[in-house]
Known about the structure:
- By secondary structure, the chain is mainly alpha-helical.
- The protein has a domain of 60 residues: Orthogonal Bundle (Arc Repressor Mutant, subunit A), CATH 1.10.10.
- 36% of the residues lie in helices and 5% in strands.
- Strands 1-2 form a two-stranded antiparallel sheet.
- The protein is elongated.
Amino acid sequence: MIVCHCLQITDHDIRAAIDWMRASDAETIITPGKVYRALGKRADCGGCMPLFLDTMRGCDNLAVPPVLRGLRSTSMGDANEGRRQGHRLSERRTAV
């Protein structure tokens, strides 16, 4: 099925690109930009993006690798991303 008429990308092309990326690096995070790059193309009008993403989500190899799951919750448990409390100017008290 043709997913993108502008660039002539099919669902088979998307699946093949994802399979190729997963085979070359099992721990990579696969994004639409990486799929376009693997196909040697660039997004044009964006009208195909919903169908493009649905096709990507339907691939078995798209899942986040087990090694990378849960990294954010363990390494970044702090909501302020390591910044001091009151790092914003609006939160600082001014001397009167």
